[in-house]
């Protein structure tokens, strides 16, 4: 199977850096997206809905979050917990069974001891889905909410980039993170631009001109 053969190849030793872990999640994301797309557009949409339910369960149910992030569980314990999670996800929908694509993904994450990557995998899948639909989501992270005029200027600059011009829809969201002291971080597509407050718009324009 496409998903199985691709995802199994990323089972590696523990103790990797956060960057490496992100790379692992990306490989799983690409594998599950490719497997779903290869079946049919309907399957792709169904898998997207199922993964959204999984993500919601992780964020809203402490026992699920604890299970996903517990690195000390044995394979048998992970399998038991996974069965419980599948029941919860199936029960939150229209009593339809989950697709084999979603089941295989979760089973492989469990088997390879990578359940902690689940949210990253889902995030990556959603990015691929948005790209497939011609959507480009830009996340602007700042220490405090940005003024509307600043977001408007950023949007105008981004619309001039090749990446944005290829997209059918451009969405900009402002994420607040107090730890980003005086900085500004702009994530779009597979690019990240880290800017200082004093020159954020100028630097963004320069980076887009040079590398997009």
From TrEMBL:
Entry keyword tRNA-binding: no
Matching Gene3D superfamilies: N-terminal domain of the delta subunit of the F1F0-ATP synthase
GO molecular function, one term: proton-transporting ATP synthase activity, rotational mechanism
Predominant location category: membrane
GO CC annotations, alphabetized: membrane
Pfam families: OSCP
UniProt subcellular location: Membrane
Keywords annotated in UniProt: ATP synthesis, Hydrogen ion transport, Ion transport, Membrane, Transport
PANTHER family noted in UniProt: ATP SYNTHASE DELTA CHAIN
Similarity comment: family membership: Belongs to the ATPase delta chain family.
HAMAP family given in the database record: ATP_synth_delta_bact
NCBIfam families, alphabetized: ATP_synt_delta
Name recorded for this polypeptide: ATP synthase subunit 5, mitochondrial
Organism: Coprinopsis cinerea (strain Okayama-7 / 130 / ATCC MYA-4618 / FGSC 9003) (Inky cap fungus)
Origin organism lineage: Eukaryota, Fungi, Dikarya, Basidiomycota, Agaricomycotina
